[in-house]
Amino acid sequence: MQSGAVYSDQAPAAVGPYSQARWAGDFLFVSGQIGLEPAKGQLVNGGVQFQAIQAMRNLAAILQAAGLGWTQVVKVTIFLANMVDFAVVNQAYASFFEEGAALPARVCVAVAGLPKGALVEIEAVACKG
Q1: H/E element, 98
Q2: What is the pLDDT along the chain (129 residues), one digit of tens a residue?
Q3: Among 36, 61, 103, 110, which residue's beta carbon has the most beta carbons within 10 A?
Q4: Which residues are marked as active site?
Q5: Which CATH number covers residue 25?
Q6: Domain limits for position 71
Q7: Cβ-based burial of 13 (10 A; exposed 0-12, middle 13-18, buried ≥19)
């Protein structure tokens, strides 16, 4: 059974009092990631598609730091600033999973606002085992 925080310098540092991810037994809870470039700490240019891709890259870096990958992700939550962006974000999201792979459960909701004016935020729960 694992416990404690997970950190990757390949993902943006937390913008508040939280961990990038935290183990709870065999489950890794990854904090919501927005489209921040780790080196610059700024949102990527190009709109919601590029922010979604960067958020997924940030999640991947944290998963990798924990010794996990997308195949261990069991649940994802996507927060959108505008539900009109659903199809674009869905396409970017899908590109991170191998065709025919078992996909995680998922929720996608529209919210009133996201940190730093982001257009999308994505969180994940993964399971070791």
Answers
A1: none
A2: 567 999 999 999 988 899 999 999 999 999 999 999 999 999 999 999 999 999 999 999 999 999 999 999 999 999 999 999 999 999 999 999 999 999 999 999 999 999 999 999 999 999 997
A3: 36
A4: 108
A5: 3.30.1330.40
A6: 2-127
A7: exposed
